Amino acid sequence: MGSQTAFPLQITTTGDLKALCQVLWSWELCDSCLDATPKASPRRGVAPCHCPWRQRAERLEPFFDFYRKTTRPYVPDFFGEHDQAIRSHQDLRDIIKSIKQNGAEHSQERCMREYFSLRAQGKESFVPGSDQARAFELAVRIMTMTSLSCDNSQEGFPAEATWDVEDKQAEAPQTWQEVDTLSGAMNKLFISRIHPSLQSSDSQSSIIRRNLTVVNLKRIAALRIEGTDNLQRHLRLDTTAGVVQIFHHTNFLKEHLLATKHEPNLPPIPRLLALETLCTLQLLFPSESSSQALLRNLVSKQGFDPDCLRFGTSPFELGGEKEWAMRFPIWGTRLMHLYDEIENPKPRGRIEVWLERKSKSRHIMMATMVGVLTAVLLGLFGLCLSIFQTWIAWQQWKDGSNR
Ligand SMILES: [Zn+2]
What we know:
By secondary structure, the protein is mainly α. The chain has 2 domains: 14-188, no CATH class; 193-345, no CATH class. The protein has helices at 14-25, 31-34, 52-56, 61-71, 89-102, 108-120, 129-144, 182-189, 205-211, 214-219, 250-259, 271-284, 289-302, 321-325, 332-343, 350-358, 361-402, and strands at 148-149, 174-175, 224-228, 237-238, 243-247. The strands form 2 sheets. It has a 3-stranded mixed beta sheet with strand order 3-5-4. Strands 1-2 form a two-stranded parallel ribbon. A hairpin with a 4-residue loop joins β4 (237-238) and β5. α1 (14-25) packs parallel to α5 (89-102). The structure holds zinc ion (ZN). Zinc ion (ZN) binds next to α2. The chain crosses the membrane at residues 364-394.
């Protein structure tokens, strides 16, 4: 019988976060940094080192918050005879490590089978399939900040569904299929499809790029901006609610770009996806003051990653990558949906909706009828008044003649 814990991931220690960075981005840490002392207080007499933990851990706080929030509620599926798929943060890190090592070449089914059989080390251990799938889902959520389902009992949705014109299926769970590698699943989720209007060969593209800003989305299209920690929902427009979602964990993407600079094909996030996402934020929040003021407001009031305010991607790029990313092969379709909202803004304010309804032709007819009716009523009122005046005058004349 395996170890039993109701909430194995309830508490995340600083040591867990350090080890997480080591697993996710191959951070190398010195003995002083690996020490359990909190990150803010280096030990006395020890010269400050140049480890990434000392340099960049503070900036990763929004991602650490996401990690805590995502892992805390995990509860194993079964108690009793069965083993738990995740018994500690260490187990979760081991799963992440094995997916990183094998996710580019091995299928999901093989990754899962190999990890759990290796862990059992020949001893008798049984982890239920559904719990295995949930453990892998959690690992993939942390690694990619998407929500890919690993449950093979569910029917997988075609990846194209996310790119439906109305984006109706975006809420549907996307699946890392049993036969796919993780890299394959990510490529299916984020399809490359060049949008002609955003290319430099199109005469309108510079105007589109200049006007496609969050300031215009707010002022002209009257859309609300919401942050998301799910990369799949980046730039998703909910026309009914008038909301556009923006993935704001730029530091997470930058760490991934730094970590894969020497091995560009390392899973799980394609470099182009990470860089292009950063480029969409540069496009939507250009360096002029009103855009930056709006972004500062989103950071302070809506908890956007403060790293969004750091402009520039050159330290994270490899040669030629930026040019390709700026063609927006992945996010182009959603960007153009947003531009349509600026070009043809739908009425969203109460008065605007009311005015729009009133401006339709049948309402113009109704307004004319109301006008005519008012004129008739006023005429009748005038007639009554003159009759009354005549009656008073007649009474006065009668009284005068009776005296
Ligand atoms: Zn160090």
